[in-house]
# Entry
Amino acid sequence: MPTKKKKSTRRANNEGSLYQHSSDGLWVGVVTAEMEDGTTKRMPPVYGKTQSVALRKMVELRQKIAEKGHIVKVHKTEFKERNFRLLFSDWFTTYYAPTMKSSASEELHRCRMRNHIFPKFENLDVTTITKKNVQDFFNDKVRKSGLSIEYIRRIKQLMTHFFNYMVVERVIEKEDNPMVGIIIASNRDEKLGEGKKITAKALRPEIRAKIFSLIMSHPVLKPIIITFTFTGLRPQELIGIDKNKHLNLHNKTISVERALKRTYKHDDEGNVVSRGAVLGETKTPSSEREFLLPNIVVQAIEEWFEYCKENGIDSDFLFPTKDGKMRTYAGLLSLLKRFLKKHGLDKEGISLKTFRHTFATMLLEQRENPKIVATLMGHKKVGTTLNIYSHVINAEVFEKTCNTLDAVYEQFNVVEILENPA
# Structure
């Protein structure tokens, strides 16, 4: 009986390859490039203990070759397994993650990958994923997941970038891109242009009075809470304030130029192996701002400086620890929680951000211009402020508006005009 001819596994000329050594188990990646004279050159191989690491090194090598002006030969067979999770993880780590402004933003995307995208697609061949697969996935997210429409759109955005990359790398053809034409259903509020509903919880008036009466005897929390409540600073911004560079008590000004940032380190599979914090850029460019301080804040900071002097606390940070070191978000929150529990306020749902929300709420209750409030808060758009704090527009505000309109009408002197027509 004739033996069945073994199918050749040889690749065509100029194709890259990714394979595993049978001897030591190492993965080997080979890339070829088209030189200026039209010839092709097989580049030195790259190695990795895992297929993921080897593929990432291939991507980095192709990028370096392209930067030198050479043409990289990329073929479908270079991605041997075409496993969705493998390719998605490497694309994200090599191309997308470096564009993130912060490690926290990167981790947010990784959470979307781990919790939503991978459970659905991770074991599939990327070339077999259809538009129907993807549309069904997003339909379920809208109807059953309880996620906000905005969050689901972020997932879609991430997947769109990935599949566009797959088209560029010729893993799939342009007409086979499953993200083209995918629709995320809108809810009624968004159709009306109101967008995602957010309600920020501020201190109730009666709780405000109680909190401020209690902190007066707490030398550390008093200046911190007063500064939070009457400046609207984010906790991460307050922690990063340098009293010598960002504070001018003589001119009563404070500037926000940096903020505390979470940092994450990941292994080759994208899992978090360590967390940390550093001072870096503010949340958005609009978050960089300078403004005048109310007298209550100036007075509280001056008292704090006296306390630091008496207790030998020396630091460049505005509100350091007793050792003069930068406070952490967790440490500051722990200090607040102990205070709230001691005074029976731990069931009120008060967090560090509560005081920032109280700042905006108090100003809008007094009918301050929303544009000014947005600027003080560091919001890029006034619509963000109005959307978050729309609940402040209550019956009392409407009553004040009616009184304003009545006063304007009285200035028309309608009676006088009727008695003395022109």
Q: What stands out?
A: The longest helix spans residues 149-168. The radius of gyration is 30 Å. The chain has three domains: 17-78, 84-191, 205-401. The chain has a mean pLDDT of 80.
